[in-house]
Amino acid sequence: MVSAAKETQSNAPLRLGMVGGGKDAFIGEVHRFAARLDGHYELVAGALSSTPQKSRESGEVLGLAQDRIYDDFHQMATEEAKRDDGIDAVAIVTPNHMHYPAAKAFLEQGINVICDKPLTSTIEDALELEKVANKSDALFILTHNYTGYPMARQAKEMVANGELGNIRLVQAEYVQDWLTVEETNKQADWRTDPARSGAGGSIGDIGTHAFNLACFVSGLEVESLAADLQSFVPGRRVDDNAHIMMRYAGGARGTLWCSQVAPGNENSLKLRIYGDKGGLEWCQEDPNYLWFTPFGEPKRLITRNGAGAGNAAARVSRIPGGHPEGYLEGFANIYSEAASAIRAKKYGTARPEATQFPGIKEGMQGMKFINACVSSSAENSKWVTL
Amino acid sequence: MVSAAKETQSNAPLRLGMVGGGKDAFIGEVHRFAARLDGHYELVAGALSSTPQKSRESGEVLGLAQDRIYDDFHQMATEEAKRDDGIDAVAIVTPNHMHYPAAKAFLEQGINVICDKPLTSTIEDALELEKVANKSDALFILTHNYTGYPMARQAKEMVANGELGNIRLVQAEYVQDWLTVEETNKQADWRTDPARSGAGGSIGDIGTHAFNLACFVSGLEVESLAADLQSFVPGRRVDDNAHIMMRYAGGARGTLWCSQVAPGNENSLKLRIYGDKGGLEWCQEDPNYLWFTPFGEPKRLITRNGAGAGNAAARVSRIPGGHPEGYLEGFANIYSEAASAIRAKKYGTARPEATQFPGIKEGMQGMKFINACVSSSAENSKWVTL
Amino acid sequence: MVSAAKETQSNAPLRLGMVGGGKDAFIGEVHRFAARLDGHYELVAGALSSTPQKSRESGEVLGLAQDRIYDDFHQMATEEAKRDDGIDAVAIVTPNHMHYPAAKAFLEQGINVICDKPLTSTIEDALELEKVANKSDALFILTHNYTGYPMARQAKEMVANGELGNIRLVQAEYVQDWLTVEETNKQADWRTDPARSGAGGSIGDIGTHAFNLACFVSGLEVESLAADLQSFVPGRRVDDNAHIMMRYAGGARGTLWCSQVAPGNENSLKLRIYGDKGGLEWCQEDPNYLWFTPFGEPKRLITRNGAGAGNAAARVSRIPGGHPEGYLEGFANIYSEAASAIRAKKYGTARPEATQFPGIKEGMQGMKFINACVSSSAENSKWVTL
Amino acid sequence: MVSAAKETQSNAPLRLGMVGGGKDAFIGEVHRFAARLDGHYELVAGALSSTPQKSRESGEVLGLAQDRIYDDFHQMATEEAKRDDGIDAVAIVTPNHMHYPAAKAFLEQGINVICDKPLTSTIEDALELEKVANKSDALFILTHNYTGYPMARQAKEMVANGELGNIRLVQAEYVQDWLTVEETNKQADWRTDPARSGAGGSIGDIGTHAFNLACFVSGLEVESLAADLQSFVPGRRVDDNAHIMMRYAGGARGTLWCSQVAPGNENSLKLRIYGDKGGLEWCQEDPNYLWFTPFGEPKRLITRNGAGAGNAAARVSRIPGGHPEGYLEGFANIYSEAASAIRAKKYGTARPEATQFPGIKEGMQGMKFINACVSSSAENSKWVTL
């Protein structure tokens, strides 16, 4: 695992701030679990809601000092930048449309940013953020958390090692059912509002995860896609289902299906990759298993930290095979990878070689994916270059 | 089950002939198992190979009388039609390009035809065969055998009963790996030769099954599709993989993926259907299970002849739940359904109401599917009407 | 597969008779499917019920000639023995207490017997039957049908080849739920009546199958056992659940759990075998899969007729991997093995070397198992030698 | 979840010390993850090894203040008890034989103890510890962590609510393979040394977990058992496999199989419970799923925080269904339950009603289980009262 034991300069936790993630937020709490699990962060500051009163209440519950509960993120960025004990990094866990202004505020103060996906709500914001991030010394980490799962790392390593041969097919799907009927809770509200979520509904919320994971594991880039988006639920303003055909650089082909209206699917992110020498199958809901079939041999079940698993998975595993790790551990791996990089920058040391996490580049690709899906679907599924 | 016990006129087996299905044939032997299992047929005549010598040898091994082993199917059709004890039906199990002439020969003699899929190798042949079949009194049964599985029947019944609500999504896939590398056996030879197989490779061989099953279970017709076909193996003259997006009448959408180059998949035909009230999932390799999720409730595992299974499945099941039935039993159900219809026609009785099997109509739809896939792919995945 | 094509003397089906198996019978119909599937038998005679009228009606439905529908099995044995075209074998599918007298009648006429399990209802009958069988020239086949499954053969072959090393553990279970509450149908009636079923309830009906399979696959004999039998349902006169610890010759240990009162289990026969080099797991409800783990390597999924399966399984498989075979095919393998042996005897040829089926020896072992369970449980689970 | 948000007196983390758990320790690191995940504890003191030098090095890596890294646990108990900011609780994660003296030292200082299982290495120590614990005001928590899994709580709740009816069968197994061959690492060393581990090998290390879980979920107590213990690996001084039949108060029966020599099993703890109205099945390696079959209805898959899951599971779940939680989350639930109780005691408030965790009572039952197994096996599997 990415353990404290490997840190050389200091074992003191990094100081973390948070924008968004107040009461009733889902993803903010996930980020806090992820930050806490490996002991690399201590949450010390926050602008936890766009409503100052709610931000204050949430901060108190989380045990933040009064003077580090902020009414808004601009104030927080400015004040924290002034402090000797200012935050080392900020987690941005707001609805999508706030990612850009919040990330900009901290990056411009030189504060490292850990931002939830997708990158922004519009491609224009994304391009601006890209500029800001490239100009800033601060790190930008995008929490495409599924790349933190040990067996996703294992799969990537096997593909890179040529165990599947030449990749021909990349089949990704991310299927849920929670928006099967009209929902009016906080989570559904902003996710189905184009002004806050962006042009993509399911493609932005979950499709980008599947897209990112497909590229991460296959090591390939998508060149073009043809999409057919649907909004099945009457009155819904964004897509709740999408069928996408994809052409990868180098000749591989694939599909991506994302849906939030398929009853019986909770959070079914699946990836299947096939080459001329073998195939791999992985499912997020059973994340400790990876199916591998060398062509012409029996299927093998590789388990996290079990027989057949290699270094890439072992590096981000905590406990022995048969002791399941889950979503929070995978998410924590992104945080711990980020901690390695942030500490290396802070203490002027070399970043451990194997450290990896998604950043601005992956964020931009995700935005291009969303845009291409929307464009293609608007033109009756024409192939669109990313 | 479709048992002999229900027959009223006569319990004597029907007399069956066979065209194709000699030594080394795969599907011919399957048809013979299917014909034999429920005791409804006795194989008495055959033109088992296009090579007379091989036909003769195969016929002897199968115990046919010398005078009913024929050198070619034309002779067989003529001679059998003359006999008092002539065959009641003929099974046509040749490569695709021979389906049309063989079926024509028997239909024109008034002999019932049980034909393997796809209907023919070309749309032209298909249109001609349609005419012949419509003109003939004889029955034409197409062995889309997967519709014979009890749980496929169960799924169809549940959809028809509204248990899924309004259907939104139909996701079908049929994935194999046996053509991952260049193959030169008999089975691969004709299936990858456009002259014998038709314009479709994987889409004809297995895609039509998935297409047929999707329509059968959903009760919906495909209006248009957009396809991206590939031939991954160098030198292959037909597609070995296809990605297809589909639009169904009434607003449902779906995808169909068929592949013969995905290592780790033996014969993985899967169907997933989702409506606004529930979802169903079925996989041919584990055919005794059907997953059903009423939206907002726990997933349920319905088993063949177990709790939760209804009449449509019980009617074509032989043994109690927990005692698995398989591919041959499903195939035999098509034969036994056909036997009901053939007997009703033979004895002038009413066909039992629930009897059903695929015929010319389903065959024509399959041919249109193949053609639409080829056309769409040739035009860069343009949406094509079926 | 054990196909007709391999027969040299004659391809004509063997003539089969049946005792028991009339209307509403479960296992009789199963035997008929099994006899029919591979085309090795034709049913021509029967004493299908202990009630002559019912026997007659059942025989007519099955299309038997009037003069070969018998009122009782004694008459049938005598008459069939006299005919030139008399039956080659008889299937005995009565309740357990009739196995002995019926088998005796046919064996003494030199007619081969295919008998359902357990051997008899009492150990006394079993010892008598053993004598009769040993004195007769006729073959005695006991349908421990689960040994007919290709993957059970595969498992046995792997154990015999040393792929598991020295066997340490044999864990067998056979779990059902259909007797969870008091049942009064025909199937339940005789199975819970000691006079017809024997001293064993679940241990006789299903425990013997698990016991037989454990010995078959492991190649080991049970030396002693300690049992705790229960009758959970009030008023039930035989056990409906049993926990058994077993000591095998050579030092292996194991358990056997059989139950008919475990809700959620339809027909869950499972076998897990572990040696010092590897482990195997198989479940009857998913019979086409065998899990194999060489110690220290990833688990492998061996499929029937798929990669990794050997000759023993291929010999009794009909169709390619991914095309599931089931209970009837496994049962039919016993019938087809028997046909090989019966034909060899009939035509004076050598029995094909690999032919195997359970017989008197396995039947006696099953009876000793039942008796030891009852004795042990009566003495508070004392270890009892078989 | 057992969240910080519910605390009223103070959100400050509790101060935690640790005995054992230095470099190369497995379970110590697990306890630290568990303590950290929900933010209820801060590790501030330790006697992390019986070797002072190693204790010191480990403490530094963990960022402990120099004056709170202790050479031995006696010193630690004394010194911490004196401090105003002394530890609120100590985690004892040593080999089994040190549980008693360490727990005694802290309990006698009034410091709450969180102790790994089994309770002690000998029944004598256990009885002494029971006295000490009962005399002390301090809390004693035993980390039978598997009772912390949400779906184990769900199962317990369903049994308690009568959804299974009257319980008849409790089948528990805990199967591993890591001791299949002789092992000489640190983990194997003390676990196979009776002086450090106690009289039980597999029965102490993992059998006690299965025993505890069976009692926890069923709500039943074991009255007597009959055991057959084995040491398959030559030279091994404790059991590495055990077969146990059990009789529960009230008439339920069960078996428990634990093994560390079954290749292909990583950490396969399974529980199956059957009553006269339904059955439940749960497996630790797939902990987010619980199978429930109401007798006569289809099997249902209940998921953590998904449809069908109740309050008991929701209370200890952190994230939505489909987002898997694992071993560390389950373990953390014990720590967070303990935190609720420790805070209630510390601040003089009422302990939240639903709070539950294993303690001395469960520890004593586990010791009696080990002793009964050893006694029974020594007397050829005689039934022994607990």
UniProtKB/TrEMBL annotation, chains A, B, C, D:
Gfo/Idh/MocA-like oxidoreductase N-terminal domain boundaries: 15-142
Pfam families (UniProt xref): GFO_IDH_MocA, GFO_IDH_MocA_C3
Organism: Maritalea porphyrae
Listed PANTHER family: CONSERVED EXPRESSED OXIDOREDUCTASE (EUROFUNG), OXIDOREDUCTASE
Highest taxon of source: Bacteria
InterPro entries found in the cross-reference section: Gfo/Idh/MocA-like_OxRdtase_N, Gfo/Idh/MocA_oxidoreduct, GFO_IDH_MocA-like_dom, NAD(P)-bd_dom_sf
Protein known as: Oxidoreductase
Domain GFO/IDH/MocA-like oxidoreductase: 153-281
